[in-house]
Fold this sequence. Notes:
- By secondary structure, this protein is of the alpha/beta class.
- The protein has helices spanning 15-43, 59-63, 146-152, 178-188, 209-215, 233-239, 279-287, 303-306, 314-330, 422-442, 463-467, 487-492, 521-525, 531-541, 554-566; strands at 137-139, 159-161, 164-166, 199-203, 220-225, 244-246, 261-267, 288-297, 333-339, 342-347, 453-456, 474-480, 497-500, 513-519, 542-553, 569-575, 583-590.
Amino acid sequence: MKYNKEAKPGAPDKGSRVLQLSVLFFVLCGFSFYLGGIFCSEKTRFETNDVKQIAVPSAKESMAAPLQIKAVSFPECSPDYQDYTPCTDPRRWRKYGLHRLTFMERHCPPIFERKECLVPPPDGYKSPIKWPNSRDKCWYRNVPYDWINKQKSNQHWLRKEGDKFLFPGGGTMFPNGVSAYVDLMQDLIPEMKDGTIRTAIDTGCGVASWGGDLLDRGILTVSLAPRDNHEAQVQFALERGIPAILGIISTQRLPFPSKSFDMAHCSRCLIPWTEFGGIYLLEIHRILRPGGFWVLSGPPVNYEHRWRGWNTTIEEQKTDYEKLQTLLTSLCFKLYNKKDDIAVWQKLSDNSCYDKLSEPDTYPGKCVDSLGPDSAWYTPLRSCVVVPNPKHKRSSLDTIPKWPERLHVAPERISDVHGGSASALKHDDGKWKKRLQHYKKLLPALGTDKIRNVMDMNTVYGGLAAASIDDPLWVMNVVSSYATNTLPVVYDRGLIGTFHDWCEAFSTYPRTYDLLHLDGLFTAESHRCEMKYVILEMDRILRPNGYAIIRESSYFVDAIATIAKGMRWGCRKEDTEYGIDKEKILICQKKLWYSSNQNSR
């Protein structure tokens, strides 16, 4: 066999061997190219096609049969676990320090101490009163705390009448009612009236009457309070249908990104703002948007007329007020307005104020470590000032769009998200409008007064919350601490949410949400979090007769349904709006049952 000069080189006596190797080489290359095309096409996503954006398992899982597990049945927890909060459990407080109330922070039990039982409702529990009536009253047996009734009834927090708790809208600093208190606040802060202020946080929220009143004024508030033995402030708030979460400013950052809130509020919340180097105010500064407002009512404001009721002297209160004012000035706040018991400071929008923090021996100084301003999951507080990123020119309160326009305007910080853009947000909004329409067909209760408190367990941009903005519900948007950080975008849209790791229990009481929604959570997290514990946690925080919409890969759906059946849920499998086989929807409802050790039937 001979080759001319233009042919591939090779010795005539080895030609057949070279030919065989050449053929084999090109066959293997072609096959590899073919396989590469298959797998690359599986991984590629196109914004123009909703179906291809669905999160699916790996190619290995897609080819495998659906995950199957054995039937399981979970026992009841004992009745004394009816208000069990695993990561803020008073039974475990003695293991932790008293310094700065560290014991009240999140301390989750190790895996060998986790409960594998169903948390029972209180004796006599019944379905909560529907919104908006729930803002003014709730069933006593659903939150049976006599202590708070006896201690706070004189301050008009609440009072017990027959089988109900009534909420007259009083508080320690608003004896004339919360509406009169907020009216005065609006006179001091006109930005509360025109959509400039949309998101707020209430530290030490009581029974969340302030946040409840603001809902009618277009302001969405996260009411924050720690777990305690008696008051159950967050449980009352959620029973009323008002957004709330367990938390305390102690040694760790709150689970929110920087520049989240337009306004922060403390009404005699008893937080020692000037102690420990002002570290608690440094955290308020971090989560408050430039141009945002911090409102304080109670000591030491109006000390000239109030000091006698505070078991102190006028000199001590004057000193405390001056220390507070000095600290706030050093953090680039200015006194904005003040009247009677209310003082308002504004965080400056001009970054030039922070230049002085670079001077030697200045306290507090700028944060110069590598810790990001949005790092907020088990992140220690820092005794330094988080300076707003100068590249963000449109995230201050005077430059961000007003509500409701800001809901559909792509926030500036979306560019910090890989793949984030105005077109991506528009596409996401369109996708969720279509999905919500489909959900309402599958679950007619959605969009009615039967569903008030909703949690989107692994949101991206808050699409479900945005699509349902006109429905009588609110959404807690949860972004995984292990996922891409999109929570700043959620807040910049005028929505609320929190960071969380679903390998742990959520910071809320049992029976506090009417609907839980997840979208591919197990596909994304099953390598880290055991499915059984995630679903048990869903059962803990879901109200009896509440619902779960579980949108998942077909690989996981049957296994999820098996576990849910063992928790006494009723589930049915439905197609997605696209009708594809790779993904299915479970519509589940938690049944109302009572502990076998109680006489509630």
